[in-house]
Amino acid sequence: MSRNWTEIWALIEEATPGPISCSNERSNNVLEDAIIGRKKIWISYDQKDEFDGLVGTEIYLDRINNLKTMEIFALWAKDSNEDSWESGWEILGRYAMKEECKRIVAYTKHSRILDFIEYHGGDTSFRFCDVPL
């Protein structure tokens, strides 16, 4: 993964909120977490062996609700192939259940993803708010 990190990081950065001024530090933090296994970077490729999609996940204990949770911190897709989305969602769900997670949480600004989550019974009524100080 570190061999293709520049290209992978560009996709993660495009898909996540955060201060651009801290890009190098953010990149190093995510890469380090991925290398030690704290975060998972799921990548799919098309038939030309080019990046087709990327999902970044981290499992943590939501101490407020005492629930093991899988957070999707980055989600990027080249196209909107419904079969690919369904397959990816199924794989993520199986992985989360194997890890004994009780829910999946994510944040996104893309209405297509919100529609997909709602279709699968997810609650999209909450908003992520980012106020730089």
Automatic annotation (TrEMBL):
Name of the protein described by the UniProt record: Uncharacterized protein
Native organism: viral metagenome
Lineage, broadest ranks: unclassified sequences, metagenomes, organismal metagenomes
